[in-house]
Amino acid sequence: MNMMINTLQRFGRFRQLHTIISQETIKPSFPTPHPKTHVLPLVDSINPHHHMPFIFFYNNYNAGDINILKKSLSQCLTQYYPFAGRLLSPFAGHIDCTDEGVEFVEVSHDSRLDDFILKKEKGKSLQELLPNINQTSPNLVEIQLNHFTGGGVAMVVSTSHKVADGFTMLTFVRQWAAITRGGSPIKPYFISSPTSYNNVKMPDVAYKTISEVKYATRRLVFPNSKLNELKKKVISMGISVTNPPSNGPSRVEVLTSLIFKCAVDAATTNTGFFRPSSLFHLVNMRNKIFKNDPEKVGGNIITMVHEKMTDSREITLNEVVSKLRKGKMEIKERNVEEIGERWENIYSVLGADPNLQIYYMTSICGFPTYDVDFGWGKPVHVMFEIPEEDNKIVVFIDTPHNDGIEATLHLPEKDMVILEQDKELLEYVDD
């Protein structure tokens, strides 16, 4: 009986039965050159050892490709050498680049591919597609290839935030796919710090784990046609900051504002009173800091726009958009060291206010998410699964045909129940 429970359970949730076909550790095709230690810059050290699972669904998988997949992964890991290393503790300031490799698991499911990509409440079912990932594992990358009844696969690549942001992870998977098709790998550049930030631990706002609060994950699709209506509404309300003046707000900016406002409203309704709320919006800094070949720079090259709202009257659609745009204009960081210092300063301020509600929002819209072709054609759907933790997180990703934005929301369950009935939000959701 205990063996059956262990088979079914992951992250405390029961999963459908699946069968492990194979499990193998894939090592780099060539040994990592000296030094064998990759010292993390401050921005990587501050980021938690939380995994970011991306799920790529394909209809036309060729079963003869598995050995080619493993060989090309081995070649790719030679270039992305920190990914094959080990983080000996969640707060270690360096990675041991000892070429221990990446776990590659092949699994078969009784479910069909459409059971996942067509399901309305996808957040409840995706966990069974994920590799075993947790904060105590020293592994930095985990891969699971899921086979479905009736054909098709889901390729899951999960990377630790210690070594990669979303852009780095997607670049890695695209390179792996290109090598599988016979292409040549690029050599990325990972920034190594001259100073070790060993045992850096930021306030609990950065490292929350599961608490007694139950969280729920939902996915909502916002068509471009409705986002354009939302843009017009925000513009009609008046935006105090435009850059350049002729530019209106982006899809991501207006959707960030809408979801933040509705999430705070739901929390206020749930508790009966307003709590000061902060919006964290992540910004990719590669093009600003690295003018030449920014796509080759690995790690966490991201900063944040942070806006704290202490009065509920501040949280209007146009005011949140104005603050976001103003925050982006005020970003001054010129290098990776200054980005790390910005994270450190903001977290230390936030750690002093335990009553603050924090909403983390990030977008990978515009990234080449649907260009990941292993020789099976482009994915029919790509999803991001938010790690199971005690944080309010929203992730935006383009829809498969680039005709809208799919938002993955991870919020307290009681707030989510209220949010799902919010007419202001539902007005812009796909029917």
UniProtKB/TrEMBL annotation:
It comes from the Eukaryota. GO terms for molecular function: 17-O-deacetylvindoline O-acetyltransferase activity. Keywords: Acyltransferase, Transferase. Pfam families: Transferase. Its EC number is 2.3.1.107. It is an enzyme of class 2 (transferase). Belongs to the plant acyltransferase family. This is Deacetylvindoline O-acetyltransferase.
